[in-house]
Amino acid sequence: MKKTLVLGATDNPARYAYRAVHQLKNHGHEVVPVGIRKGSVAGLEIRNDRPAAEAVDTVTLYVGPQNQPAWYDYILDLNPKRIIFNPGTENPELEELAHQRGIKTEEACTLVMLSVGQY
């Protein structure tokens, strides 16, 4: 299964990032929830400290492009195989930086990908 870092994780059940953590876990993926507020989701602590994570397959973004620059180095230094830009998180600058490092990017919805078996 694909180790996935959810950037923008939240304990708010009305948010898509909350649903994504639950669905990723339900599909058997190892999930690292990272957000700006402390809390927990799907029984996992939301990390606020930019944790070092080994062998991250996917970073799925739930942070708007205006807030992403502060995360660029962290995301890229994880060296994931891919970054998923969920609706509203599209960012050509970060996509280009990722491509320069050989990281695949996708503008897609993690929830839809999981529901149709294309994750």
TrEMBL record:
Q: Name one Pfam family in it.
A: CoA_binding_2
Domain CoA-binding, first and last residues per copy:
2-114
What superkingdom heads the lineage? Bacteria
* The protein, known as: CoA-binding protein
